[in-house]
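Thread: Modeling a multi-component assembly for a lab meeting

Hi all, long-time lurker, first post. My supervisor asked me to bring a structural picture of a complex we are working on to next week's group meeting, and I have zero experience with this. I have the sequence lines for every component (724 residues in total). Could someone generate the structure of the whole assembly? Inputs are pasted exactly as I received them:
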Amino acid sequence: MHSTTDRFKENARDALADTGLQKALTRASAGFVDRRTAVIERLPEFDTLRDEARVIKDHTIANLDFYLERFESKVAENGGAVHWCRTADDAREAVLNICRLVGAKTVTKGKTMIGEEIAINEYLEENGMTPVETDLGEYIIQLRGEPPSHIIAPAIHVSRDQIEAAFRQHHNNLDEARDLTEPAALLGEARAMLRESFLSADVGITGANILVAETGSVVIVTNEGNGDLTQTLPRVHIVLASLEKVVPTLEDASTILRVLARSATGQEMSVYTTFATGARREDDLDGPEQTHIVLIDNGRTRLLGTEFEEVLRCIRCGACQNHCPVYAAIGGHAYGWVYAGPIGKVLTPGLIGHRAARDLPNASSFCGRCEEVCPMRIPLPKLMRAWREREFRQPMGPSLPKWAIRAWALAARNPVLYHFGARMASRMLRRRGGALRRTARFPFADAWTVHRDLPTPEQATFQSQWSGLRRAPGRRRKQTRDAPL
Amino acid sequence: MTTSRERVLGDIRKALGKRAQRDEAAEAALVARLEAHAMGTIPERAKKSQREQIRLFIQMAREAAATVEEIKTLRAVPGAVAEFLAAHNLPSAVVAAPDPALQDVAWDSRETLQVRAGAAEPSDLTSVTTAFAGVAETGTLVLVSGPGTPTTLNFMPDNHIVVLRAKQIVGDYETVWAKLRERAAAGKSAGENMGNAAKKTMPRAVNWITGPSRSADIEQRLLMGAHGPRRLHILVVRG
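Re: Modeling a multi-component assembly
Sure thing. I ran the full set together rather than chain by chain. Output:
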């Protein structure tokens, strides 16, 4: 996917001014959060399961080579093939080769985030094929020519009116007089159109939520059933999966599935969880004749063995996005690449390069909700801070804030200098604030003062008040006596 | 020439550093972990008596918007199916799984009901299938693919009726894996005459199904029947 992460600040500004988007974000915000809270209250074991899920993933990542080789051999035993790909180019090439070998023209697609990373749709189109997204949200944004703005609700930014407009523009046989006011009518229209695609497709491409090393199974999770029609009806099923999706056993997968849907949509379990193992068996009446699993690195091994390794535990539930105040204000597109919200702030610099995405880790209020809700206990704020530290140490970004931070560090480590500076600042602010007791403009801090005034300190600094109290022993004793027990 | 497989694995091992340098004991420990099938925490709610599990399964399936009807024996299936079709104003025709488990169902006891056995066709409106298990903790059905249980029946028709014997209801997902492993072990020891499917733990597809298909992609409004069945009707057979 083409990235606009380097325009993050402009993107965010535009998003804040986009009234349609703001309406959509308001509509979306509460539902996911409330449903997650309610479903977790019913499962006292939830936090224990999170701890266990974390241990499972850490163990797997520490032995990633072993489990991937085991997974590959089990896939082969079941009549499937694994294609190892280092880069997005390798992966696109592998998919195109498979499609060409089977003479494919139409390709149906289930939702896949790694598919967005490698921009597989654009590539297949350039090479004369017609990829059709089948997840309703993905289908809507494909018609609109947009990238997804949320991991599990890709069209969360689109209004009903816009969906109707997209259908009327692209569905050639749609009767102009037909009433599509009700969302159910829109769904019916999409269902009928996509059913034809399912039946005519030569190849079905899905992502993978989990890979199981023990059995060579690919797990996908959906609510619509589109992923299952995509992988069952065409002759060929291609799975796009990043390396870190693997877990050792079916039991490990079950533990992770117990936290996935609850964190994502607040459901006890998603409607369809499918374990697909290899190609159609000898006596089967349906299922694909060929199964190909395209295993993609695309930057994961660069994170492995670094302080960012923990982000590889992510199971793409979207809980951090649902709970992020910054995401709620600007939506997903402003982040400029596949992953929006807190996970994007940590993952994107790692996958497409820190320089291009350097503003993302800074766009945080550090409220910590993302870490609080992450089912895999990824310390997202800590990892954002780690990117910030790197930015500080490397020659990138504006230099003025860095000098300011250095000056601050010098003062903070020198009490005499610090207290002197604080006294001066307090005195200066009180003088500058005057009768209004507020400062409207401040040198070098326009970005901050443009939206608010800096209130004038009420009195002298805490330190000087404290030493004043210590010099008046009678008053201090009285205060101690009066203090509540 | 290095293959891309070797390159990717090489990148992983390089990044893992010492962790990728395993001696025989470490390698054996990983193999042992794979074979132990150790379970994580099983929610308390799944550890009830069988009677409680059946009750919980029905409750959770209904919460997931499935409809559940309890019937006494397999003989009652045709009547229950006909009533379901009539209640929803559906044509009196179904496609049924060619599963030996349904062979005792006397379909011709309902003369007006048309039954075809096989995989799903685009024109099929209602399917009747069996299930491998029901999981009480979330009201989840487990359906496995095989010669008698084609997967398309679970996804293509608008209405999906599932025949589940009460004794197939278990507490948790892990019990289902254990049962699939038992089945594979039995298949192996039975030798060639069992057919291919049963000798492996995992058939081509294992479908966990929790309620009917749905989508909330239009302004977060929950709508049923996105691509899979709009209605999921479960017949729990007591006998």
